[in-house]
Design brief:
The complex is a heterodimer. By secondary structure, chain A is an all-beta fold. Chain A is built from no helices and eleven strands. Chain A has strands spanning about 5, 10, 20-25, 35-40, 45-50, 60, 70-75, 80-85, 90-100, 105, 110-115. In chain A, strands 2, 4, 5, 6, 9, 10 and 11 form a seven-stranded mixed sheet that branches. In chain A, strands 1-3-8-7 form a four-stranded antiparallel sheet, with no helix packed on it. In chain A, strand 9 (about 90-100) and strand 10 (about 105) form a beta hairpin. By secondary structure, chain B is an all-beta fold. In chain B, a hairpin with a 3-residue loop joins strand 5 (about 45-50) and strand 6 (about 55). The model of chain B has no long low-confidence stretch (mean pLDDT about 95). Classes of the chains: A mainly beta, B mainly beta. The interface of A and B includes residues 46, 102 and 110 of A.
Chain lengths: ~120, ~110
């Protein structure tokens, strides 16, 4: 069974940093690209970033480019999202998702990031 | 960026009804379109990819169609568990973009 478990969310002040992690199991992690998608409270889904299976390619939404960095450790079946210079508009539930055929098939349950002073 | 526009934004229907949700892309995306279902407080669930292919385990009451810029998601024989918010997403190019969502409510 595919399982994705996010962690690392919490309350931070504007300008601070946070690192999210996503532990994957139930599939061969090293052969799949992985994505982050977020959802602000009461709002719709917003795609954030993607990383290829071998970390050779990454893409970001314009709203996070230059502030967020996606990475992965295939030896530990773990995906990361380093978030720097956080803003109030980054407040959201962050989901990691497995990428198959261009889109996301399996999703984690999400971790809440709140940016507030 | 490709803009995705869903209609309607909300929809009321009764158990047993058949409903259709529309998604329009601001430019052609071939069939690189996915549909997701999300219930309150839960993660999205993948329903359809490549505009009309059902994800494994998704019942055949869900169907998708379209190509280019216009797409539809149809749900037949609505059951209480189908009342949720539905999102389309294009994966023709980066950044991936979602529609704003369609909230399906019980009448």
């Amino acid at each position: 069974e595919v399982q994705l478990l996010e962690s690392g969310g919490g309350l931070v002040q504007p300008g601070e940093s946070l690192r999210l992690s996503c532990a994957a199991s139930g599939f061969t992690f090293s052969t799949y690209a992985m994505s982050w998608v977020r959802q602000a409270p009461g709002k719709g889904l917003e795609w954030v970033s993607v990383i290829s299976a071998n970390s050779g390619a990454t893409f970001y939404a314009d709203s996070v480019k230059g502030r967020f960095s996606i990475s992965r450790d295939n030896s530990k079946n773990t995906l990361h999202l380093q978030m720097d210079s956080l803003r109030s508009e980054d407040t959201a539930v962050y989901y990691c998702a497995r990428k198959t055929g261009g889109t996301q098939d399996y999703w984690g349950q999400g971790t809440l990031v709140t940016v507030s002073s | 960026d490709i803009q995705m526009t869903q209609s309607p934004s909300s929809l009321s229907a009764s158990v047993g009804d058949r409903v259709t949700i529309t998604c329009r892309a601001s430019q052609g995306i071939s069939n690189y379109l996915a549909w997701f279902q999300q219930k309150p407080g839960k993660a999205p669930k993948s329903l359809i990819y490549a505009a009309s292919s059902l994800q494994s385990g998704v019942p055949s009451k869900f169907s998708g169609s379209g190509s280019g810029t216009d797409f539809t998601l149809t749900i037949s024989g609505l059951q209480p568990e189908d009342f949720a918010t539905y999102y389309c997403q294009q994966y023709n190019s980066y950044p991936r973009t979602f529609g704003q969502g369609t909230r399906l409510e019980i009448k």
